Amino acid sequence: MIRSFAKTAAWLVLVALALVWGSEAQAQKKVRFAYPSSADMGDIPSLLAWEQLKKQGIEVVPTFFPKTDLAVQAVVAGEADMGTAAGIAVMKAVESGLNARIIAEQVRNEWQLVAPVSVKDPKQLDGKRVGYHAPVTVTEALVKWMAQHYKINPQWMIIPGSDVRAEALMRGQLDATPAEIGDVINILNSKPGQFHVLTSYAKTFPQLIGSMYFSRVDYLQQNGPVVEAVLEALLRAHRLLDEKPALVKEHALRLLPETKPELIDAIAKSYRELRIWDVNAGAGKERGNASIKFFEEAGLLKKDAVTFAQAFETAPLEKVLKKIGVKK
Q1: Which residues on adjacent β-strands are paired with residue 156?
Q2: Which of 37, 58, 62, 83 is nearest to 219 (CA)?
Q3: pLDDT for 52-90, tens place per residue?
Q4: Which of 7, 53, 153, 187 ranks highest by number of CB atoms within 10 Å?
Q5: How far is 56 from 73, CA to CA, in rounded Å?
Q6: Burial 125-155 (b: 16+ CB within 10 A, else e)
Q7: Region 161-185: what's the mean pLDDT?
Q8: pLDDT above 60 (res 299)
Q9: Has residue 14 got a pLDDT over 60?
Q10: Residue where a domain stops, chosen among 154, 181, 204
Q11: Rounded distance, CA 328 to CA 315, Å?
Q12: Does 48 fall in a domain?
């Protein structure tokens, strides 16, 4: 009787443990993901990846924050597990001693400085109204680098959202701004002959990282298989759109209903030409170090305050690339 009771008690303990372990496994399969703004063209691969991951039993729950720093803070504070943000924003968090690591690239540097056709040289922007997204962003780094390089002192205006700055430029409320490819094409189509690309930062700084996927060190260590599954789904989405560019329009119309249909083909073409969606999710040491140096020169990072090893954790991506292969 006593032995029977002991066996029953032991069995109940095992069942209880199994339920606990099962609930933990379920919790690990839900990934809270932070975006730094509303969804746009650059997010199409990740939105596709989330659909595929759901079929594999991994639910990605996205939150679209209005500002980059809020997305970074959410991940660092444990309110989100992973996220995407400008590489400089994550590096700045690392410089401040916060728990964050870049694990892959979402989109390469796609920014282009747009200005009225009357502005033919960046030097003409001295004293003019130049807008950028927010402090500690790639857009700030690019325009601040420009100011130092050309020895000019523009009137800085912080206006979150590439599309919002594009509208401000067309209304005459700005004299120049870095804009995403989609917004550049919208400006040129909406106001033909009135604006032009003054500087293509994508071509000027091909080594500069753009928006990056990132997480916390503890999350990466404790959830390796989930992180690798997420990265694999993202890479497969990047490669799918590279191999079949016609799918960009199909998915853009479905996932981003506010995008102007007449602009999608041109945006997709530019994305492919500039390899905006890197088929290997480039977060290598060469580009990482080049970007750190650029951000130091732009005055956004203190010299030697951040190293590649401190800002990047490439092991999960390397495992995925070893599994599915590096694509040229």
Answers
A1: 130
A2: 83
A3: 999 999 999 999 998 889 999 999 999 999 999 999 999
A4: 187
A5: 29
A6: beeebbbbbbebbbbbbbbbbbbeeeebebe
A7: 96
A8: yes
A9: no
A10: 204
A11: 20
A12: yes
